[in-house]
Hints:
By secondary structure, the protein is mainly α. The protein folds into two domains: 1-78, MazG-like (Helix Hairpins, Orthogonal Bundle); 79-115, no CATH class. The protein has helices spanning 5-16, 22-43, 54-75, 80-94, 101-114. Helix 2 runs antiparallel to helix 3 (54-75). The two termini are 22 Å apart.
Amino acid sequence: MKVTIEELEAYLLDHYSNGGIDQSLFMKLVEEIGEVAEVLNKKAGRKTSGNEDLRAQLGNELADVIHYTVAIAALNGLDMNEVIIEKDKTASVKYNHKTNLEQFIAEMRNKELDS
């Protein structure tokens, strides 16, 4: 199963709308970013690790980062799909990328239709 940003936003808004405080969620986000840093340090050999599955740990910690990021956006009425597309358009111009995210997705979808 795949989930869209809109679906995740709706789910998290429903989940946190009765008592979700974006400042508290931000503190959890910072905590999770620290956990991502710890896993990356282990992967790079800067911290010791046992027989841990660092790839799985990294995936779980990144999922937590996305969870709290999207929850904060949802509680603040942000449409992250729109924000991401527009932010990427600006960055693509700034950094002289040959395509932006919107163009890339359109090209991918066209290729899928042609297949």
